[in-house]
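Protein 1 of 2
SEQ + STRUCT:
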Amino acid sequence: MTSYTLRKGSSAKVRTDVVVIAVTSTAQGPVLAPGGEAVASAYGRALTPLLASLGFTGTRDEVAQVPTAKTLRAPLLLLVGIGSADVLGDATRTTDAVRRAAGVAARTVSNSASVALALPARDPAEVRAGAEGFELGRYAFTAYKSGPAKDEPGEVVLLSEIARSKAGAAALETALVVSSAVRTARDWVNTPAADLAPPAFADAVRAQAKASSGKLRVEVLDEEQLRERGFGGIIGVGRGSAQPPRLVTLSYRPRRATRHLVLVGKGITFDSGGLAIKTQLGMRTMKCDMGGAAAVLAATVAIAELGLPVRVTTFAPMAENMISGDATRPGDVLTMYGGTTVEVLNPDAEGRLVLADALVAAGEVGPDLLVDVATLTGAAETALGDRVSAIFGHDDAAVARVRAAGARVGEALWQLPISEEMPVKVRTYSKIADLMQHNVDVYGGALYAAAFLAEFVPDGVPWAHLDIAGTGFNRRGAYGHVPSGGTGVSVATLVELATELAEAQDS
């Protein structure tokens, strides 16, 4: 178990196995970032030739390990590049750089018993970024690995001049709670689909609620209850699987709350494509198709643990999209919760069907702000890649609010439009049902999906839709604080959004 402490002190005199400092790149050469002043003083004029001999430039993610030969109390100095010194001129870019550098450091010093982070930590945001970056950077999914666990630092010390302030302590606590939630979401996404089918996923949420000391309440609708209550989208997607679907509602209702944040997350625990079957390669990572549900549920747990005075109701429709004689066929018509009929054109566009049911249910509980998160369309990944999530909405203020929350915690969101022709297509393409589920054209897939979801959002409710198809699962190597596999993206954004709503409520 790794412990984190916030402490005032000199980076040259701290007694740990490793001390970590950040280095920026400038036209005149590498320069130590704030936090490394005592190290620079200890090395004096020898620092510049030392960096030159290492070929160290301060480029982002560049690392070098330097035995200190008693120049410092710590026997090892770890240098981490954070890129151009310009990043230190902007608060958001600085926190992003600190978070990323701490993540790189965590992977580099995994065999050290104690680590001191002498990264920029001049304010609560930088303290939080350092702790989050290190805790998330050291993440590894080892549930299925045999043999002894790898060594982890027993102690991580964050050096900061605000160490004795309430704001500094609160920032560290927030960092650890949010990091724990992100790690939970990553674990859920990384778990093989055979071990996290809808019933097992619902049980995992029950366990989280039970551990909350009464702060969280959970309701789970099984397949019979879903059928009786008319959740045709969830039933239609899940009926092809031997694993029955579920609808999980996780609620947090503190006494002082006057704002109500409602979250919806896509929980397709495995997506074979249904009768529009994917290729073997296309199915390889489809255990990740419940990343939206993992994010909204884990964020709700964190919001409750932090005790934020905001009411949160979270809906996670869970189903496995498989093939059988009872699987939904192209041309079938499903009746959604609330009575809207939908013609299914593509069984591999199943996420919007379960979300439609959940969005209608979400509208019934009176949200002040409604946000859904889903690994929804390959089109969003094609447009924005795997490090920027797409965001849509018909309320510009709500979209801007969510984007700003994401920016503050290092999760990039880019707004895409619901162009005016898309709702028309959704409503008119089917000749036999109220709506057409999938775009008949090959372009604009993410826009069409967002327009389809918008049909199930109550009028007047501020709503934002996050498409994390590219960002929810990292198919490449680790970078910064982000590992390969499940990323836990959107958890931090949603917690930050709830925090901002709480602050607005108090003011």
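Protein 2 of 2
SEQ + STRUCT:
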Amino acid sequence: MHITVRDDYAVQAMLAIAADGGGPVKTIEMATRQNIPVTYLPPILTDLRNAELITSRQGSDGGYSLARPATDITVGDIMRAVSGPLSSIRRMPPDTVTYDGAATSLPGLWAALRHTTHQLLDSTTLHDLLHGEGSATAA
């Protein structure tokens, strides 16, 4: 599995908001707390807002807030919001790839990998990561 810079920064930004009680947190504060270049955050935050994982409010008391409790937002939700599907093979869904010859059983491996990846990312919440609980700490 390839974890992109966007995935990494998006999860860090969401954790920064969650750690601050759910927000509101300003972009510059997220960037500073997580050591993320501030120029990377606006498009990531837009994707997170479009996915309804965060809300935003302008003004001196504004910033970004979680749209739901940290217990209800998973790492899988965040990664899908900024990067799309969690797994693909040559940019195709794993269940559409076929092989010939000695590799005919390879789709079964890719399906198992996809299932395990989804299970871990979809069961690990922001709350889990902030509190060292659940499947994130068992890995």
